[in-house]
């Protein structure tokens, strides 16, 4: 009898999760009802999937509204009706159209208008007027009194109790950005919108028996069905060519074509592996999945886009031959069963990274190629988080900002203590923030997922159109996979932009040098300069290997070969580190005797990593060969590690089987527990070996470019937004490699940073508060008039505000005209107050009145402070800005190798700080600093040091601590650390006065 119910997927209106709504219906004895969220189908798949578990027959539709004003409720008679609803809703959401008063003529949809509607007779066969229990008595006095065959029951269900209604009001206030006390009643639902028992509901309509009969007729004729679960075939695009046979011939022929490209002397092993993979791919129905990825890569190659294929698909020789990945599974002995096996239900993962500049075009190509009706970006649900909810509720409740800030410091786990401590509004804010936690706020775009379906995407969902410009589904990855839609992952990263830009910059700056084949990675593996960078951890700017933790690991492992870097790329992951196996791996690498401690079975399964589980497929190997699980059970365990279980019960079942089989295999309980602990510690963090290998390939490409063309490479790093560190570190690194760094210049600089020989001219886009419009105006007018001769010429040519001009002057962009910034600032004020603007630059110079200014003193150190304010960092040596710079007993980074175990004092400019926690939850830091000579020094700050000497932002610090060393990696265990103050303006004024006196 309920044809208008709302879940919390009626964003910022509804409050009930789907399961809570179903529990409420089950409790009230409701055998069937319709989920009709407001302008949303986000909950439909979950509702259809879960309703039978509660003994409820699901119906689905949409409550179409303009704001909170209901226009009509649409109920799908069947799957075709659901598709009609989705098409109609999507059209209005995409174009931001108002919902009309009258629905279009649907073929498979019931339309129910509210009783208050001004609709006139006649109604179509599928159209009805809905009557709320509160409106029953009004029917006899309405125009519908003689048309009861067109009336049905339409009670609205939005809440379970008063608390739900309170949450609803808070959500409406948040949505309207208004105080709760000023929320208009028209923006609220009715607190009586509760679910009554079936008997109570029938009793409320006892005077309108025909209405009940009409409602029961609608309910009985609505049937919706979808297949859920991996026991059914996937619903992705079934064929690439239109024929399964042609698909297979195409993938086979393309693989055979790829063999000569990948292997100079292909062995029988390669052909055998290929035949085995193709057979299973065909049996599992994944041929089209591979061909779609191949098509995307083919387009990228034609466009000369750089990409990296990774994920479990990188374990496949088919992917390697189709050029989806650059990882040779034969060379790396990649575990085939991690890639695919007959027990695997879902397609293997292909995560394809493109440059952040290219991904949008790749996405456009996918939509254009496979059809906008069959292609869609995957959504995620942006949910209220506790702290954000506290802030939002604080605002709608009218709390002052300082009180809101104080409340946001409350940790979620301390909520019970806080509720006892607080009173009044503050208590209510915390209480309801806890209740709001996890409720969906709106749809967002999944980081990478694209759906390509065999049936039109509207068969499954309506779509919305975010600012990104491509439509998104109304459900997330979990619902998509449940219904058999598996995503294609198209990601972006700046590392690939660095490689692409580097090659162009190298060609421009070194036109006589031969072209670099960036895909010839096997040559890079043997390059001595690359090996030197790796083993010494000098990989600043290089993808995935530049962080302090990775530099430390590379030094400890002396990693100077491909397989070593592949292992390091996975060993560094939190799961391996957490289990203690990262340290064990290092110890077994450095101390061969330690390798004997590995269990013989584990040592045999993982000889490369000395019996230590490092990769995801190691879990499958151990579960299968050590614990005796079947490959299907082992794959379920792997999926559980990736957080893909639907329930804790499923995971518990695999855990029980693991220990049962271990006992049957004769392993003692302690050993089984230790191995299980290692598996559990991975907890979704471990990489597949092919994935790590893909990362290592990109790292090698970056390392080669940095080893042979460091300045050009670092320019590309700067232009792609840096990496792990702030931009200033890469500028410093370029200077350490012999570059002369020039601040932005109005006559030379481009939008991005450029290099000429060994001189690097920073780009205009590095200036934080310089508008893009100003940048484009400057460059456009410079192209027209040529070099700017003086400030008057610039102002006359470029349409610029005084504030924007002052930024350029203060950063030194006019130094090619006049190096005295103070004089230029005076002139700017005088000239801009009198200059008449022209839309077009003049072909002839006009004379301006000359002004004589007094001599203005300038201290070069002032430039450093201007740079810090405008760029966020000084271009000059930060140590010369320090007031009373300590010089006695200061150790440099290059000298600590001789002072192991000794106390030293150093000066360091803070580059990076990583917060972490000890096993008991206390806070500690790992720091990276640059000393006065420009070298790196790494620091460890244990909890007592952190409490007494916390980091206080960017700047120079005086650090005292003990030099420690482990496996050739040196660092400072900090005991005392104090920030050293920079000079201030009074010091400059004193210097200016002193200058005048001496003159």
TrEMBL record:
Q: Any idea of its EC number?
A: 2.7.7.7
Tell me the SMART domains matching this sequence.
POLIIIAc
Top-rank lineage group of the source organism:
Bacteria
| A biological process from GO | DNA replication
Q: Which GO-annotated molecular functions does the record name?
A: 3'-5' exonuclease activity; DNA-directed DNA polymerase activity
Q: Which InterPro entries match?
A: DNA_pol3_alpha_NTPase_dom (IPR011708), DNA_pol3_finger (IPR040982), DnaE2/DnaE/PolC (IPR004805), DNAPol_HHH (IPR029460), PHP_dom (IPR004013), Pol/His_phosphatase_N (IPR003141), Pol/histidinol_Pase-like (IPR016195)
Q: Which reaction does it catalyse?
A: DNA(n) + a 2'-deoxyribonucleoside 5'-triphosphate = DNA(n+1) + diphosphate
Does Isomerase appear among the keywords?
Answer: no
Entry's CDD domains? DnaE_OBF (cd04485)
The answer to keyword Transferase applying to this record is: yes
Report keywords, A-Z.
DNA replication, DNA-directed DNA polymerase, Nucleotidyltransferase, Transferase
* Domain Polymerase/histidinol phosphatase N-terminal residues, every copy: 1-68
Name by which UniProt lists this protein: DNA polymerase III subunit alpha
Protein's organism: Reichenbachiella faecimaris
């Amino acid at each position: 009898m309920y044809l208008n119910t709302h879940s919390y997927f009626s964003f910022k209106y509804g409050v009930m999760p789907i399961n809570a709504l179903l529990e409420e219906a089950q409790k009230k004895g409701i055998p069937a009802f319709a989920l009709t969220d407001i302008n949303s189908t986000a909950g439909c798949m979950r509702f259809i999937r879960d309703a039978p578990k509660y003994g409820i027959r699901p119906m689905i539709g949409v409550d179409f509204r303009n704001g909170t004003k209901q226009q009509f409720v649409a109920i799908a008679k069947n799957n075709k009706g659901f598709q009609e609803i989705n098409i109609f809703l999507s059209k209005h959401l995409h174009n931001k159209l108002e919902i009309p008063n009258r629905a279009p003529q649907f073929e498979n949809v019931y339309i129910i208008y509210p009783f208050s509607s001004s609709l006139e007779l006649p109604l179509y066969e599928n159209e009805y007027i809905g009557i709320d229990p509160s409106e029953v008595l009004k029917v006899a006095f309405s125009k519908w009194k003689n048309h009861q065959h067109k009336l049905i029951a339409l009670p609205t269900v939005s809440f379970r109790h008063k608390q739900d209604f309170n949450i609803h009001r808070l959500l409406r206030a948040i949505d309207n950005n208004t105080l709760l006390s000023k929320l208009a009643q028209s923006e609220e639902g009715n607190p009586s919108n509760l679910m009554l028992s079936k008997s109570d509901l029938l009793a409320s309509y006892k005077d309108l028996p025909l209405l009940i009969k009409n409602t029961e007729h609608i309910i009985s004729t609505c049937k919706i069905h979808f297949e859920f679960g991996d026991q059914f075939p996937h619903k992705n695009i079934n064929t690439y060519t239109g024929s399964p046979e042609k698909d297979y011939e195409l993938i086979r022929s393309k693989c055979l074509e790829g063999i000569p490209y990948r292997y100079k002397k292909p062995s029988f092993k390669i052909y055998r592996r290929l035949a085995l993979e193709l057979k299973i791919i065909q049996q599992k129905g994944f041929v089209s999945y591979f061909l779609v990825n191949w098509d995307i890569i083919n387009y990228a190659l034609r466009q000369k886009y750089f990409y990296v294929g990774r994920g479990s698909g990188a374990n496949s020789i088919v992917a390697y031959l189709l050029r989806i990945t650059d990882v040779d599974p034969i060379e790396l002995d990649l575990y085939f069963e991690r890639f695919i096996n007959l027990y695997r239900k879902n397609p293997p993962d292909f995560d394809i990274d493109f440059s952040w500049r290219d991904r949008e075009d790749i996405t456009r190509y996918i939509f254009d190629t496979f059809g906008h009706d069959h292609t869609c970006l995957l959504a995620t649900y942006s949910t209220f988080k506790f702290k954000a909810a506290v802030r939002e509720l604080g605002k709608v409740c009218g709390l002052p900002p300082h009180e809101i800030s104080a409340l946001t410091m409350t940790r979620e786990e301390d909520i019970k203590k806080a509720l006892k401590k607080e009173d009044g509004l503050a208590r209510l804010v915390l209480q309801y923030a806890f209740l709001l936690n996890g409720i969906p706020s709106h749809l967002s775009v999944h980081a990478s997922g694209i759906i390509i379906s065999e049936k039109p995407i509207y068969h499954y969902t309506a779509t919305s159109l975010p600012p990104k410009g491509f439509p998104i589904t109304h459900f997330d990855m979990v619902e998509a996979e449940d219904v058999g839609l598996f995503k294609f992952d198209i990601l972006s990263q700046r590392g690939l932009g660095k490689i692409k830009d580097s090659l162009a910059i190298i060609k421009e700056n070194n036109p006589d040098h031969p072209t670099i084949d960036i895909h010839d990675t096997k040559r890079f593996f043997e390059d001595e300069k690359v090996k030197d960078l790796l083993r010494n951890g000098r990989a600043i700017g290089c993808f995935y290997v530049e962080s302090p933790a990775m530099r430390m690991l590379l030094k400890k492992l002396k990693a100077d070969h491909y397989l070593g870097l592949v292992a390091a790329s996975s060993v560094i992951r939190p799961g391996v580190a957490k289990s203690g196996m990262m340290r064990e791996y290092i110890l077994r690498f450095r101390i061969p005797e330690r390798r004997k401690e590995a269990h013989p079975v584990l040592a045999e399964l993982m000889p490369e990593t000395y019996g230590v589980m490092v990769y995801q497929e190691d879990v499958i190997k151990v579960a299968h060969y050590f614990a005796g699980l079947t490959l299907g059970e082992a794959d379920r365990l792997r999926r559980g590690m990736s957080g893909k279980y639907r329930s804790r019960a499923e995971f518990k079942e695999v855990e029980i089987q693991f220990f049962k089989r271990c006992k049957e295999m004769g392993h003692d309980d302690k050993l089984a527990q230790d191995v299980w602990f290692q598996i559990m510690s991975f907890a979704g963090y471990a990489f597949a070996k092919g994935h790590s290998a893909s990362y290592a390939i990109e790292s090698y490409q970056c390392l080669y470019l940095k080893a042979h063309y460091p300045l050009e490479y670092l320019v590309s790093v700067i232009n792609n937004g840096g990496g792990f560190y702030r931009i200033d570190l890469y500028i410093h690194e370029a200077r350490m490699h012999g570059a002369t760094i020039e601040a932005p210049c109005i006559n030379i600089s481009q939008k991005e940073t450029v290099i000429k020989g060994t001189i690097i001219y920073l780009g205009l886009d590095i200036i934080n508060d310089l508008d893009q419009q100003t940048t484009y105006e400057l460059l456009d007018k410079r192209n027209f008039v040529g070099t700017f001769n003086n400030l008057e010429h610039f102002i006359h040519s470029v349409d610029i505000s005084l504030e924007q001009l002052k930024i350029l002057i203060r950063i030194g962009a006019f130094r090619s005209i006049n190096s005295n910034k103070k004089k230029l600032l005076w002139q700017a004020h005088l000239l801009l107050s009198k200059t008449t603007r022209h839309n077009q630059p003049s072909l002839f110079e006009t004379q301006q009145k000359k002004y004589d200014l007094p001599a203005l003193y300038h201290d070069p150190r002032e430039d450093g402070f201007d740079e810090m304010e405008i760029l966020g960092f000084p271009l000059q040596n930060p140590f010369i800005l320090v007031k009373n710079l300590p010089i006695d007993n200061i150790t440099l980074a290059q000298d600590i190798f001789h002072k192991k175990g000794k106390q030293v004092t150093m000066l360091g400019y803070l580059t990076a700080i990583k917060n972490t926690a000890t096993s008991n939850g206390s806070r500690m830091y790992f720091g990276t600093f640059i000393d006065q000579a420009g070298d790196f020094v790494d620091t460890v700050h244990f909890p007592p040091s952190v409490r007494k000497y916390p980091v206080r932002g960017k700047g120079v610090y005086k650090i005292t601590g003990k030099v420690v060393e482990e496996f050739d990696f040196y660092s400072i265990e900090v005991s005392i650390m104090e920030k050293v103050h920079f000079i201030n303006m009074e010091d400059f004024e004193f210097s200016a006065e002193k200058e005048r006196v001496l003159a």
